[in-house]
Write a structure and sequence with these properties.
Distance between the termini: 94 Å
Order of helices and strands: HHHEHEHEHEHHEHEHHEEHHHHHHHH
Strand order of the largest sheet: 2-3-4-1-5
Largest sheet: 5 strands, parallel
Structural class: alpha/beta
Helix content: 40-55%
Number of helices: 19
Shape: flat
Strand content: 5-15%
Radius of gyration: 31 Å
Number of strands: 8
Length: 424
Amino acid sequence: MMNIPLADRLRPDTLDDIVGQRELLAPSAPLRRIIESGNIPNLIFYGPSGVGKTTLASYIARITNRTFKKLNGTTASTSDIKEIVASLGTFEGLSGVLLYLDEIQYLNKKQQQTLLEFIENGSITLIASTTENPYFYIYNAILSRSTVFEFRPVEPDEVARAVRRAVRILSEDREMEIRFSDDAVAHIARSCGGDVRKALNAVELCALAGEVCDGAVEVDLQLASSLTQRSGTSYDKDGDAHYDVISAYQKSMRGSDVDAALFYLARLVEAGDLISACRRLVVCACEDVGLAYPGIIPIVKSAVDIAMQVGFPEARIPLSDAVIMVCLAPKSNSGVNAISAAQEDVRAGLGGIVPRALQNKHYDGEERAEKGQHYLYPHSYTHHWIEQQYLPDDIADHVYYEPGENKTEQAFADYWRRIKEEQP
């Protein structure tokens, strides 16, 4: 019994024993009603590790009358899939097969297609889990025959419930009382990043390392902190968590929330992801501050250059300075709006012929009655500006740039308004 992982020993007997995912498993939730109906369709569970996907799949397997098979996408081969398909014609497969396919994203398209016919006719009921966005990694034909449910990180209060249950089971296994202080339980529940499996691993470590006092194992906050200090860093540079963090990082800067932006920068620093921290910072300076404070762009570029030169841990200092400055700077997205509007016209095939005055022409053919390019050189005129047509004829009246409501862009707009009004 002691060799079985603690997470497996805590597999729930009822849906109410499953911690977290209340939005999926509350009494009135659709997924719960589907499970309790006993008529299980093809399901895809999507979410980070340790949030109950395998736990729920195992529970469903126990309450169904179908033969249960389990594969893991990281190790499964085409022959493993064919072996399950072959069992459908045997006594074992008479009532159908429930296949739990963990990490389905690691199966290639051909392997997924092997299952398709039997999923479609109902011989195999598929419950698949994935930590990656299923709409990017799972074959469309399987997606169209399945229902996707998203699992979220488990809240600390729910994790704490699993931690206390784990402590009771460990006490029974060792026939010795194991006492975790309330502070230790709370710390483990918070620091696991919503990953119940990670929290249970921390419980096992603490129980092994705890000091025996008066016939009981004592685990306090100091011990729990030393064994779980980095377990809250949920980050995978190739996974959804990576994109969630950098998205929140940029959106917090755009929203001028200094504290949130610094928190997500800290996540990137702790993960050692200097490239993402720098890239999104430069993009935000250009896209979200932009013309409201144009001087910020070279400032941020300098901070990023320093960060790249010194590396971590010192890189966090210029990055922090630049993030704070971007957050507190006035905001304008007029630049990105302008280029986006211009791109729309280009993609629509408009403005194909450049006005003759702007073309790179050095001669006129005999067929042209009016000779000369007729380009007006702005520097030859007052204020270095003269009115002439620059856009192609078919989009001559299109306006892409609209000044932002900030003093810098409004000052530019007022300047050019005055210059143009002075022209005869």
